[in-house]
Structure formats: structure tokens, C-alpha cells
């Protein structure tokens, strides 16, 4: 989730656990702890793919943060006021730190909860990385507490409402999964890799991505839909996959994103690039994470290079408006974006 949300979650938890004893300080310390894991963004890992895939790594590990919480609790209990027991300090630090990666795991990006194990990132994909309906209850009670002072009822209400919204997102995803199962089975895609996730800023409209060999399928499914959605097919550039996986960055991306990658050859200023796109993030037609993995040597061979991030098509106000209309009204059309459609360079 975004840093504001993480700070608000940490602040609300900190205020709930130690606000009676520390007052506003508990909220401020909790907010700082809630954002602490994201400081890994200042680390330069070497290239764009490394920066992308090592984020939410060691700093989001449950083992690392659990150890840090224990050390902080021991130090604080030794030097802070003695009327707060060690167990309470540990609960305070653990709650503010560990909820950060757990909340991140609800998004599609993925979080390496089990670092230093090399298992793929955990991603439950039930909430978009920015969702005002989750953030607003927490933000409201944190501001209220900072202005008015310790208010356990307000803090508990904020945490309860935000948690209920997370529970709703889990239920909504389960409903969407059940709704699309017959359609995918009818198309012979029941066992194909698929990703179900909410579209930006809401949990009413869901995006379904299904990998099918050389192609992938996309559809938008709303909670208010009363009919089967349209399932559209797009080229995945699978013939370039082998070349991409011959590069270290390509292997790292596959570990990070699984099969939800699209490959294409793209020419700029006379140079031909092999570009990989993470299909999980953004929404159809608007993908922000595109990486140059290799360049052509002019004789049909690809030469690996330090990965570079390539800006994707930015969603404009009209696209976001149509997305909202599609979420609220099932009969409103929401095309899946012409940016995906060209196939002339997808498999070269």
C-alpha cells in the first residue's frame, strides 16, 4: 500500500496500544514504524529490474521485522518508564511493524514475507495499492487523535472499519472467482494461470487476466454485473520469452511476476529493444512497468544489458472516468485499451 496508508495504520495501532500511557507520541511513533519498511526504496540494487523486484524484500520480511520488534522492545523496556511491561512494548512494536508487510501482501505487487527464503512474493491481490475506502477511516481517526488527544473509541472504530473493508475485499474476490469459473471452463481455461484483482481505487470492478500459451485473455467483471463479461484475447509475445529468460533480469522478472509477463520488440531511434511488461500492475491498456532487457545486435541476436524502465501509457482523466462508470454501471462499456492490440512486433 502507499506510504500514507501505512503510516495511518501504524499510527492507529500505536495509539490503540499505548495511547493511554504515551498520548499523541504513541500515534506518531506508530506512524513512523508503519512507514519504516518502505525505506528500502532508497537502496540502489543496480538496475531497474533489480530495484523493482528487490523492493518489499528483506525490509518486509516477517523474520527481520519480528527480530527488530524484539530488539526495540528490549531496549525500550530497559530505558523507558517502567510501568509499561516488556510484553506491551513488544506488542506495540510488532503490531506497527508486522502489519506493514501483511497489508502489502493484499496487493498485486507481492511481498517477500518469508525472506531470506527464495520463495516467490506473497500476493493475495484483493485490494489496489491505493484505495481511499481503506485509508480514509484510518486517516480520520489519526487526525482526530492528534488534535483531540487519546480517544480509544475512535481508534478502535477506525481499525474496525478498515479491517471490515479488507474482509469485504476477500469476499468480493471469492465471489468474482466463482462467477468466472463457468466461463473459463467453457473456454477450456479452467486450469490456466489466472490473476483476479481489483481495478484502481475500488473493489467493485475486478480485472481478470488469464495466460493461455502464446496469448493472454483479459476481462473486467463488476460486482453489479448481471451478465457474463466479454473475454478478450491479446498476443503475449511468447516467442520472445526464451530470449528474455536468457538474461538475468528476465529470469528475475519471471520469478517475481510468474507467467504474467508480456514480451515485445520495440524500435526507438534505430535501436531494437526487447521489452518485458508486468501485466499484473496498472489496468488494461495502461501498464506502468515495462523493462528493456536486451538490444538487438543487428543480426537477429539479442544482447543482454542493464535493465531500464520504460514509461508506459499514462491513464488520463477520461480513462479513469470510464473505469468508474464501468464499476458502478455494468452496462457502461469499458474497452480494454488499444495499447495492447498491435501484434506486428509482439512475436518477432
Q: Please, could you describe this protein's structure?
A:
- By secondary structure, this protein is an alpha+beta fold.
- It has 3 domains: 3-167, no CATH class; 171-222; 237-340, no CATH class.
- It contains 10 helices and 8 strands.
- It has a 4-stranded antiparallel sheet with strand order 1-2-3-4. A 4-stranded antiparallel sheet has the order 5-6-7-8.
- A hairpin with a 2-residue loop joins strand 2 and strand 3.
- The chain starts with a helix and ends in a 20-residue tail after the last helix.
- The model is unreliable at 338-348 (pLDDT under 50).
Quick summary:
The chain contains ten helices and eight strands. By secondary structure, it is an alpha+beta fold. Strands 1-2-3-4 form a four-stranded antiparallel β-sheet. It has a four-stranded antiparallel β-sheet with strand order 5-6-7-8.
